Amino acid sequence: MFKYVMKRLGIIVFTLILIISATFFLMKLMPGSPLANAERLSGDQQRLIEAQYGLDKPLLVQYWNYLVNALHLDFGTSFQFQGQPVSTLIAQRIGPSAQLGIQAIVFGVIAGIGLGAAAAVRRNTKTDTALSILAVLGISVPSFVVAALLQYYIGLKLDWLPIAGWEGFAYTILPTIALGLQPLAISARFIRTEMVEVMGSDYIELARAKGLSRSEIVWKHALRNSLIPLVTLIGPMAVNLMTGSIVIEQIFTIPGIGSQFVNSILTNDYPVIMGTTIVYSMMLMVVLLITDVVYGLIDPRIRLAD
Amino acid sequence: MAEQATGLTAEGFDFIPMDRAMTAEKIDRPALSFRQDAWRRLKKNKGALVSFWILIIVFLFAFLSVPYANPKTTSHQDVMQQNLPPKLPGNIPGLRGETVVDGEKIDAYADAGLPKDVYHPFGTDEFGRDLFKRVLYGTRVSLEVALIAALIDLVIGITFGMISGWMGGRVDLVMQRIIEIVSSIPNLVVFVLLILIMKPGMFSIALGIALTSWVTMARLVRADVLSAKEQDYISAARTLGSSSWWIGLKHLLPNMSSTIIVQLMFTIPSAIFFEALLSYMGLGIPVPMASLGTLLNDGQKVFQFYPYQLIIPAIVLSVIMIAFNLLGDGLRDAFDPRTRD
C-alpha cells in the first residue's frame, strides 16, 4: 500500500511538472501583452515594468525560476491586481469554492443513495420509473441550464431564495442543487443497479430465511454492499464538479476560484491563469488518489497493485 | 421376453421419409446478422427508439435549414421587432405574442406597430433577430462542433488504443503512463490553454474537446484489442501472413465497432455540453456566429424580462443531450449479446 501511494505521488509530481512546463510555454506563445495600454508606454517604461516582473531574463531562466517557485506554491504576482501574490488571491477565494463543492457532492451522493435504494426496493413500480426519468434528466441536462432555470423559477418567480451572491447559507442552496444534481443522478442510477443485483444474491436469501425484517435486510445487508463500489465514482464526480463549478460560480456570482479563473482569462492575467490551472490539477490528482486509496482500504477484495 | 418388457412392437414404428427428417431439423427463423439483431433489440427499447427519431429530426432541421437560417438571415436586425415574445398563427395559448405590462396582457406585436401576418415562433432577441432562425443555426453549429470533435476523438483514440493493445509490452506500458498523465489534467484547463493560443472558433473548440476525450476511447479500444488478440481467428490471420495493419483494419476494427459506436454516443453529447459551457462563459464560438451556448448566454442576460430567450435554447440543448444519452444506453444494451432475449 505504502509503495503504491509513493508511486502514485511520484506520477503526480511528474504530471505537475509537465503541466507547469506546458502552461509556462503556452503562455509565452500567447498573443497580447500583459501590459495595459502597452503602446502608450515608452520603451524605458516597458523595460522597467518587465524587469519588475522578471520578464527581462532569458526564457530558460524564467522557466526554471517559475518551476521552482510553483512547486513551492508561489506563482508570482498578479498583473491585474497590482502587487497581489497569486497564491494569496487563490487562498482568499478557495473557501467558497471548496464549500460549494463539498456541499454539492454530499447532497448529491446522499440524496442519490436514498433515491437509488428506494427505486431498487420498489423495482418496476411507478416510483422506479419516475426516479429513472429523474436520473436521465440529471445526467443529461447541463448544470448551468439547471442553474439558470432555478434562478428564474425559484429565485425570481417564487422569490423563495436569493438569486445570486454569497452572504450566508440561503445563498448556497440554489448553486448546491444545480451542481449536485449530476452526482445525485449518477449515484442514484448506480445504487439502483447495484442493489438490484445484491438483492438477488444468496446471502440476502439467507437473511430473509433467518427471518430478518425487510428494512433490516435493505439497510444492513443490501445497501452496505452496494455502497462500496460507489467510492470509485466519487473521483470522476469531483472532476465534473470542478468543471461545473466554474460556470456555476459565474452564474451565481460566487467569489470562488472558478469565477476568478474566468476573469483572469478575459483580462490576460497570465500568472493567475497559470496558478489556478496548477492548483486545479493538483486538487484533481489528490482527489483521485484519495478515492483509490479509500477504495482499497474499505474493500478487502481489492488489492492495490504495487 | 424383451417385447413384453418394453411393450413395443415392430408395428408401432413408422418409416420417416428422408425429406421429412430434413424439415424437422430445419431452422425456420431467418438468420439475423449482428446488425439486424441489434436493431431488433433497439426497437424494443422505447426510449432509445424515440430518441433516435428525435435526433434524426433535429439533424434534419439543423442541416436542411441552411438556406433559411444562415449567418446572413440570422444576423438580420430590426429595431422595430426587439424582444418580441413567441407568436404562431392560430390562437394557441402562450403563443399569441402577448406580454404582461403592469399586470395587463397586451399584444406586443400590435404594440410594436407590426402587421398582422408577422410571426416569430420563438420570438425575437434584443436586436430584433428571429430566435427560431438563430436556434436552428445555433443547433447546427453546436452539432458541427460536436461531430468534428467526435471525429478527431475517434481517430486519436482508436489509433492510440489499437497500437497500445496490439504492441503490448514496453510500448503499452509507456502509452498507459501517457494516458494516466493526460487524464489527470482537468479538461477545462486544456480547453482554456488551447483556446488562448489558438483563435477561438469551431475548430479550436472541437480540438480542445477531442484532446481531452480521446483517453476514454483509447482505453476501451485497448481493452477490446487485448481480448481479441488472443482469439483464434487473429492467430489464423497471422499464420496466413496478414500484416498487422491488415489485421487491425480488417479484423479488429469491425469487431470493435459496437464499442466504438456506443462510446461515440456519449462523446457527442459531452462535446455539445463543453461547447455550450465554453460559449456560455464567453470563451467559445466568437460573436457573429451563434451556438446553443451563446444563445443561452444571451438569454441569461435578459432572463428577468424575457424568459423565453433563455428557456427555448435551454430546452433544445437539454432535449438533444437527453436523446443522445438514451440512445447511447439503448445501443449499449442492444449491442451486448448478454442482454439477448
Automatic annotation (TrEMBL), chain A:
Transport: present as a keyword of the record?
Answer: yes
Could you list this entry's UniProt keywords, alphabetically sorted. Cell membrane, Membrane, Transmembrane, Transmembrane helix, Transport
Write down the CDD domains for this protein, in alphabetical order.
TM_PBP2
InterPro entries, alphabetized: BPD_transp_1_N, MetI-like, MetI-like_sf
Q: Which GO terms describe its cellular component?
A: plasma membrane
Q: Name one GO biological process term.
A: transmembrane transport
Gene3D superfamilies, from UniProt? MetI-like (1.10.3720.10)
The ABC transmembrane type-1 domain is annotated at: 94-295
Bilayer topology: Multi-pass membrane protein
State whether keyword Transmembrane helix applies: yes
Q: Name one Pfam family in it.
A: BPD_transp_1
Q: Where in the cell is it found?
A: Cell membrane
Annotated TM spans: 100-121, 133-154, 169-191, 227-252, 272-298
What PANTHER family does the annotation carry?
DIPEPTIDE TRANSPORT SYSTEM PERMEASE PROTEIN DPPB-RELATED (PTHR43163:SF6)
What protein family is recorded? Belongs to the binding-protein-dependent transport system permease family.
Can you say what this protein is called? ABC-type dipeptide oligopeptide nickel transport system, permease component
TrEMBL record, chain B:
The record ties this protein, via Pfam families, to: BPD_transp_1, OppC_N
Entry keyword Zinc: no
Q: Which UniProt keywords apply?
A: Cell membrane, Membrane, Peptide transport, Protein transport, Transmembrane, Transmembrane helix, Transport
TM regions (residue ranges): 48-69, 145-166, 260-285, 305-328
Q: Which GO terms describe its biological process?
A: peptide transport; protein transport; transmembrane transport
Compartments, record wording:
Cell membrane
Report which residue ranges the record marks as coiled coil.
Answer: none
Q: Which InterPro entries match?
A: BP-dependent_transpt_permease (IPR050366), MetI-like (IPR000515), MetI-like_sf (IPR035906), OppC_N (IPR025966)
Give me the Gene Ontology terms describing cellular component: plasma membrane
Annotated membrane topology is: Multi-pass membrane protein
ABC transmembrane type-1 domain sequence ranges: 139-328
Name the protein family.
Answer: Belongs to the binding-protein-dependent transport system permease family. OppBC subfamily.
Q: What is this protein called?
A: Oligopeptide abc superfamily atp binding cassette transporter, membrane protein
Native source species? Weissella halotolerans DSM 20190
